[in-house]
Amino acid sequence: MEDYKVSVIVAAYNIQDYIVKCLESISNQTYKNLEVIVVDDGSSDNTGKLADEFAKNDNRFIVIHKENGGVSSARNTGIDVASGDFIGFVDGDDTIEADMYEMLVNNAIKYDADISHCGYKVVEKDREILFYDTKQIMIQDRKKGLVDLFEGTMIEPSLCNKIFKRSIVGDIRLDESIKINEDLYFNVLLFDKANRSVFEDKAKYNYMKRENSATTSSLNNIRRVTDPRKVYKMIRELFRNDIDILPFAEKMDIGRNINIYNLLTLEKDNLFLKLRREVRDYIKLKYRNVKDNRFIDKKMRYMMFGILYLPHIYSLIYKVYFYKKYMN
Questions:
Q1: Is-cis flag, bond preceding 132, omega within 30?
Q2: Residue 39's closest CA among 17, 5, 6, 68?
């Protein structure tokens, strides 16, 4: 069944060592009815040239060259010209399994879903980490899709392991002022519109973990704190009058701010001391009302208590935990 076209948007910036392998993995899909829009976001290396050469041999590929504006700008450019029944995204330094789009489209049609998504794996130099490849199929209505997205345990907030009906994307675009967690907010807007989503937990998307990539770099700029906090605030505001969804959005907000505080405890730069105090003050504000949210579990309450009333002991415990888990 290939009656439905999938527009695949590939954002690419200075990834000349990876772009061809990425495009090959898309070209080799068992599902052939694809429109592949490669957006060269002002690359200064050979990324754009390599994409142009690849497109000459596969007429399903088109390449757009634009001034550098960031990944959201590149994706929005692709959305603006997409003509498919479904829209998907692939980062230009990742790859996908040969049957990913076949599986996603078949599930979308079978279950009449607005969003179809799958599991993924992180590929490092010497190992692959599956998330989670349980093979289970999960049907989500609007509420369950949003809650699963907020929980972030099984459902990945990336755009790249999903296809979206073009009809629900409509005029929604990524916020180009946000550089970190922009995909989470875009996902939230689309899951909020989706009547039904289907998730099949087979690891079909391959995140290629590279040194010096955005996913491996340390907390080295202020935006890695301020942008996510801005997104969490936007999500809370979006659901401020929705009594079914707001408690889960609040829980996510608190949990993510705790994670940010934890990362800030590892930073020695004085630039981050003020931010850590701001995050701590925010957690203090939320702690006053935490009893009203029955979805806040004991572990999160204990962590909030430790941050507020035993900050030095809490920071020491977290540093020991972090270095044992990630540095050995």
A1: yes
A2: 68
Element (H, E) at 235: helix 223-238
Q: Tokens 């907000």 sit at which residue? A: 253
E strand map for the chain: 6-12, 34-41, 61-66, 86-91, 95-96, 115-123, 128-131, 137-141, 162-165, 196-208
Give the Cα separation of 174 and 186 in Å (integer): 6
**What domains lie within the chain, and their CATH numbers?**
6-208 (3.90.550.10), 223-326 (no CATH)
How many Å from the N-terminal Cα to the C-terminal Cα in the chain? 49
Task: Show pLDDT as tens, one digit a residue, over the chain (328 residues).
Answer: 689 999 999 999 999 999 999 999 999 999 999 999 999 999 999 999 999 999 999 999 999 999 999 999 999 999 999 999 999 999 999 999 999 999 999 999 999 999 999 999 999 988 999 999 999 999 999 999 999 999 988 898 999 999 999 999 999 999 999 999 999 999 999 999 999 999 999 999 999 987 655 444 556 678 889 999 999 999 999 999 999 999 999 999 999 999 999 999 998 888 889 999 999 999 999 998 877 778 888 999 999 999 999 999 999 999 999 988 777 6
